[in-house]
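Z., the sequence and structure:
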Amino acid sequence: MGDAESVRGSGFVERTRVGEALETLRGATNVSTGTQTVPLADADGRVLAEAVTSPRNVPDFPRAAMDGYAVRAEDTFGAADRSPATLSVGDRAGPQRATWVHTGSPVAEPADAVVKTENAREVGDSIEITSTAAVGQNVSDVGEDVEADQHLFGPGKRLRPSDLALLRSVGIESVTVRERPSVAVIPTGEELVESDPDPGEAIETNGLMVSSLVERWGGNARYRDVVTDDRDALVDAIEADLDADVIVTTGGSSIGKRDLLPAVVEDRGDLLVHGVALKPGHPVALGQVEDTPVLMLPGYPVACIVNAWQFVRPVVSWTADTEPDEPARVEADLNRKIRSEPGIRSCVRATVSETDGGVVAEPVHESGASILSSVSLADGWVQVPESIEGYDAGDRVTVEFWEAQP
């Protein structure tokens, strides 16, 4: 506890860079060993625990790639608008005989091509073909989409709707996936209430926000009741959820007299990081108690969501043995200057708009970690790396949309 006390007395003299803090956190994160088999209808966003190969060819028969007439290509050789090839029409294709097929219909031997409807005209019970067809034209071969025994996805793949469609197309109806990481979310602070605050009180919002983000990022959130700023109560709250894959607390992570969590975690386990070179949100703490990562997020809501994105989001993915997806982003021209301190990673809230000149990003509340509305009203943020002092008006920047899916 001595290190925590010295920090409390002197302030954050040194702050760990975000990249280093993430490496430390990753070393403290264990992959959940639990797996379950779920039907495809329930597998969107789930992480595969096993490799998947195709049990069959798709298609497993030659099939028409469009509506038209199945023919033998040799019966159309030399066909042109002024000298069409005339074929009879029947239930099956054969020498000098065509048959009508829909897109996806089998193209049975001896047919080996499909003539588009615009290249054929009906004349009584026959058709006149006005264009030569090549062997295989408008016909999908066996295995053209997927071949039998083809590797489709490896473990760690987060499934998307298009992936589910591909799996069903090869005849797979269920998959083995990682269990959703369990994340205990514990809001703390003696001033927090659920509703109807008196003067000096505030409605609890961070726990709701973080729990919702955890669900969006693929975890199962345990949204706990508010715990007051009392050492014994905080110890009990953390110990009650040590069976979770991850514990996230909100509030009480800084160096004030009521910021007890870092010392509590250090007493019960290891305090790995306390203070990160991140704005807003430097008073974050990362620890581990009995092999369970404990992420202590600041109480100011903007700082809370910044740290949730930087640290909770990846640890939820790592616990499920995968990586978080890259966030949705857009390139935009900055309409006014952003200042940042060298050595600090700054996350500046911004709105995005379309103008005649292109996409424009406008900074919103470069400071003010307590202004929750600035998060809700912004579209995303511009991350200013540690190596620069900011951006000038007119600079091309990347805006990341923080509340997109993982």
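Residues 121 and 347 are 65 Å apart (CA to CA). The first strand starts at residue 35 and ends at 39.

Let me know what you think.
H.
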